[in-house]
Amino acid sequence: MIRPADLPETIPVFPLPGALLLPRGRLPLHIFEPRYLAMVEDCLKTKTRLIGMVQPRETPGGETRLQSIGCVGRLTSFSETEDGRYMITLYGISRFRIREEVQGFTPYRRCAVDWASFTRDLGQAEEDPRFDRPAFLELLARFFTAEGLSADWDSLKEAETELLINSLSMLSPFSPEDKQALLEAPDLGTRRETLVTLIEFALRGGSADEVLQ
């Protein structure tokens, strides 16, 4: 278990559009770019084995910047293919706010980060007292049908509330901007409401961006 004191001031970051990691979620990644292969190798040498996932964003001038909030994960699974690629899994630990990007000699990006706003992430799984599971699953069934997606409905009916909402937030085919809104939701109830809004607008053929901007 990672405690607040274990969280470093500087972490390596992996900017990947649409890849959302949330606390206590699991994100599988296929690593093949040389700079990120180096990042994984350096990560494995550390005690905490932390990598920060963050959404990149394009500026009007074409420069790639980073969103201010990301989520750090602990590398919990690692395998190497015959041609030198890595298959890893990150377990979500805590969100962070980027203070500044750190210049150095690593081929990958690193950032100085602040954890103070997200101490709740290190606690127990969140609850959502207002969650109406039958209504949510009915909406989800319509969305999956419209998108041509399949699901193990028995597992969805039995899943813990946080696992259900966060897993769907991570896996649903929404834009990077929408994924960022799900990441920044202050609590599980707000994330569920945001997810429902995105699903409803997708079913109506509209753009969730129109609501979330």
TrEMBL record:
PROSITE patterns: LON_N. Pfam families: LON_substr_bdg (PF02190). Residues 11-203 form the Lon N-terminal domain. SMART domains: LON (SM00464). This is LON peptidase substrate-binding domain-containing protein. It comes from Ruixingdingia sedimenti.
